[in-house]
Amino acid sequence: MRLRSWGEAALEWLYPGRCVMCLDPAPTGICEGCAADLPRPGPSCPTCAEPLPFAGDCPSCLRRPPVLDGVWTPFVYAWPLSHLLLAYKGGGRPQLARPLGSLLATHLPDTATEGIDRVIPVPLHDRRFVQRGFNQSEDLARALCRKRDLTLDTRSVARVVATPSQQGLSRRARRANLRGAFAASAELSGQRVLLLDDVMTTGTTLNELARVVRRAGAVRVTAVALARA
Ligand SMILES: [Zn+2]
Ligand SMILES: [Zn+2]
């Protein structure tokens, strides 16, 4: 990767039309060379995105099929993408929304959005949305929907409980933490829904959201995250 003063480039990025990583000209904000160098996942389970030594369903999904019908994660949550996402979310750099959205829209396989009726980004609780000023999942979903002519749905599901951060919690604790966090306010009968998150860690959030969307009537629920932790 041709990194030129990377930290400055990402954090002080105020150069429209330049790559956020190497400052080369890039209309979308990330040049093709830097995008090609980002770590990509190896073989993984198509249902839960768990890394595997070979392609195929993982033992856990075979034993107990998860709520999600499939998961796509085009990138691995590692440097420098992890830094970009942190600068975007934690550092309140909303201008990184465009390059990251474009990265997802360009590198997500077409099969992930085939036959999809609507895209539902993981909702933030109102209070957190006000604090942060944006919802990163919604920004990524908007970019994807624009590029692929899909319907963005930010109204059918809400986060009704402001759950504490999932960071550092075990899988079981994450599940308990999220119970009842989402509620559907609309009928989703017969809908094929694609859920969208910025980063997928254990998949607890996406699975909990999928449960709510399925209970509202969705017939197929798949998910996309820009990166798999
Ligand atoms: Zn670049
Ligand atoms: Zn699996």
Describe the structure in brief:
The chain has 229 residues and is α/β, with parallel strands linked by helices.
Describe the structure.
This protein is α/β, with parallel strands linked by helices and 229 residues long. The protein has a domain at 43-78 and 105-228: Rossmann fold. Helix content is 34%, strand content 14%. The protein is built from nine helices and seven strands. The protein has helices spanning 6-11, 32-37, 59-63, 81-89, 97-107, 126-132, 136-148, 171-178, 204-215; strands spanning 70-72, 75-76, 118-121, 157-159, 182-184, 192-200, 220-228. Strands 1, 2, 3, 6 and 7 form a five-stranded parallel β-sheet that branches. Strands 4-5 form a two-stranded antiparallel ribbon. The longest helix has 13 residues, at 136-148. The chain is globular, with a radius of gyration of 17 Å. The chain starts with 5 loop residues before the first helix and ends with a strand. The structure holds zinc ion (2 copies). One zinc ion (ZN) is lined by residues 19, 21-22, 24, 26, 31, 33-34. One zinc ion (ZN) binds at residues 45, 47-48, 50, 57-58, 60-61.
Give a short account of the largest sheet: 5 strands, parallel
The CATH topology of the domain at 43-78 and 105-228 is given as Rossmann fold
N-to-C series of helices and strands: HHHEEHHEHHEHEEHE
As an assembly, this protein is single chain
Radius of gyration: 17 Å
The unreliable regions are none
What's the architecture of the domain at 43-78 and 105-228, going by CATH? Answer: 3-Layer(aba) Sandwich
